[in-house]
User: Fold this.
Amino acid sequence: MAKKILVTGGTGYIGSHTVVELQQFGFEVIVVDNLSNSGIEVLENIERITGLKPAFEEFDLADRILTDDFFARNNDIDAIIHFAAFKAVGESVQKPLNYYRNNLVSLMNILENQIRFGISNLVFSSSCTVYGQPDVLPVTEQTPRKDAESPYGNTKRISEDILRETIAVNPQIKGIALRYFNPVGAHSSALIGELPLGVPQNLVPFITQTAAGLRNELKVFGNDYNTPDGSAVRDYINVVDLAKAHVIAIERLLKAKNKSNYEVFNLGTGTGLSVLEVVTGFERATGVKLNYEIVDRRAGDVEKIWADTSFANEELGWKAEKGLDETLLSAWSWEKRVRGIK
Ligand code: UD1
Assistant:
């Protein structure tokens, strides 16, 4: 019988791409999402890609009563991937309590139910934000974490701690924290992708919305960083490559190939690209000219970060495969489909 995987936040950006990969691998998927930052139509689009509609329940995992009730009815789940969380860095500064309550309480509710019902396996969405501005690049999983720059970043750091400390005294639970670098792009079908509410905060959705004519111009935040062209450097990882790493992580847990009960992996490409390189990459890949202007640095941004991916390469046998042009083209195809542009 197919193993049953709970995907929280499964209608969201990374979650939806992961549901597709899990289904295509042969797992049975149940999605829980409160639809606070995604739409129900995502489930139909997943079905169009895979031919399978995942089971779905709409509720908030920060609600203890609803979460307990869900697990009481679904205690045959084999593994959980926990994506559901708030992720807007700027908003988290304005509403710290919302972020701590939502992101931490949901994780605690899940872990308590794992202990209660003997559900061993958890994959957790962490972030390279836990490294802050590292002193040495690229960052390995051993690079010391720094104080978070935002409540959002702090929720990822504290969540990792909650997971590690809980596992230390509950050896029946096994966890893998995946530290994502900057996920970008969309599924090659253009049926699922990133659809931010309101004005996009992240670079690639802002680029594609500018190209689509929804925004007048892209603002490039800073050109006086200590980087080759002065703009900030990140490690942009294709969301489908990222999704595939989750399938491998789940397999690792289910087949007990993990080396310790709590493991952490960087998921990136291993290459740093500047904001201006992404802008010119987009123009090259799509043939669309971008209107952009250099403005001041954005508060809270780190100067540069990219991943050392050797641990994920060696231990998971996983490597980012898609190049920048293909990734940016996929983001553009998705934006065009959503906006009805030919
Ligand atoms: C941030 C978080 C990351 C989080 C992600 C998801 C930090 C250090 N990183 O990534 O943990 O998972 O958001 O929301 O907190 N840029 C522009 N113009 C724009 C938008 C962005 O120049 O309109 C630049 C930024 O200054 C940055 C780069 O593009 O240098 C990437 O920005 P963004 O996509 O927002 O991601 P991060 O801030 O790296």
User: Anything to note?
Assistant: The pocket of uridine-diphosphate-N-acetylglucosamine is lined by residues 87, 89, 127, 129, 149-150, 153, 182, 201-203, 206, 218-221, 232, 234, 275, 298, 301-302 (CB under 6 Å). The chain is about 40% helix and 15% strand. The two ends are 43 Å apart (CA to CA). The chain has a mean pLDDT of 97.
